[in-house]
Amino acid sequence: MTDTTAQNAGLTGTVLFYSQPEPLSVEAHGKLGVKPVDKPYAFIGQTNIVPLTVTEFAPAALSYPVIFVGETKQPVAAMGLSANDNLFVTDGDIRSDAYIPAYARRYPFVFANDDAQQRMILCIDRAAPYFVEGGETPLFEGNEPSAYVKNAMEFCNNFEQERIRTESFVALLNELDLFEVKEANFTPRNPDGTPGTPQKLAEYFAVSEDKLKKLPAKKLAELRDNGALGQIYAHLVSLAGWDRLIALAVSRQAAADKA
Questions:
Q1: Structure pTM?
Q2: Which of 37, 71, 96, 145 fits a disulfide with 149 by CB distance 3.0 to 4.6 angstroms?
Q3: Which of these, 90, 88, 85, 102, lies nearest to 51 by C-alpha position?
Q4: Angle, vertex CA 142, rays to CA 137 and CA 143, nearest 5
Q5: Are 218 and 37 in contact (CB under 8 A)?
């Protein structure tokens, strides 16, 4: 069950990007509205990885390496080579050719768990710069959520369904023992043009092509028919994107040195 209000809700969990999440209610936020901002995705610049859902693998692969991280093997878009450094965001502007993950597009709305009542509650990040009293797009019309909020709730509902689907996808890969630990490495050039000392940029989980090839034909057919195989290949193709990240990092460093 989902709702837009909570009275003493027992909310749990922390969420990337949300510094002041609050359950949305007419009592607390009835006078708030949304104002347009010049750089709506500037907040993405604070991290080098952004979570993805499985249905985003193909479009995200055009911009970033799609990798799996942590104990839960959360799929993410790798947008930089070091923490807190996003190579696709410059002075608050995200590259126009970059795919924007749904995780970021739902901001500043998010669902939170209300353990006490066993339901999901729509929250907002009250610290988001979009919210001001009397903003041109109201959050409420009288005591009812506005069309803007209803659209946000629908988006969050869809995102939640995709999140659950993504968990099932990762569970399937675990069940088939398809993961392996991989590294992204970079070999710089010495001033004389010879290869320098290799540097490890990242360690992450990825699908093993060798393990994938060894699956029985019947299982591969199942993965093909349920769409999982296409997502796996999108992930594997995306790993060539490490070269783009390296090129962006080198270009940014060169510009900084010149400045």
A1: 0.88
A2: 145
A3: 102
A4: 110
A5: no
In 3D, which of 8, 3, 24, 10 has the Cα closest to residue 138? 24
Q: What is the DSSP string of 160-216?
A: HHHHHHHHHHHHHHHHTT-EEEEEEEE-PBPTTSSB---EEEEEEEEE-HHHHHTS-
Task: List pLDDT tens digits, range 76-130.
Answer: 999 999 888 899 999 999 999 999 999 999 999 999 877 666 688 999 999 999 9
Q: How far apart are CA 85 and CA 15, in angstroms?
A: 19
- DSSP letters along 65-133, please? -EEEETTTTEEEEE--SBTTB-TTEETTEEPTTS---HHHHTTTEEEEEETTTTEEEEEEETTSTTEEE
pLDDT at 138: 96
Phi, psi of 203 (to 5 degrees): -125, 130
Query: Which is nearest to 126 in space by CA: 216, 241, 233, 34?
Result: 34
Residue 66 pLDDT > 90: yes
Q: In this predicted structure, what is the pLDDT of residue 4?
A: 39
Q: How far apart are CA 41 and CA 104, in angstroms?
A: 8
Number of Cβ atoms within 10 Å of the Cβ of 55? 16
Name the region of 51 (left: φ>0; alpha: ψ -120 to 50; beta: rest): beta
Quote the CA–CA distance of 172 and 208 in Å, as a whole number. Answer: 14
Within 10 A of 211 (CB to CB), how many other CB atoms are there?
A: 14
Interval 6-29: pLDDT, tens: 333 333 445 789 999 999 999 999
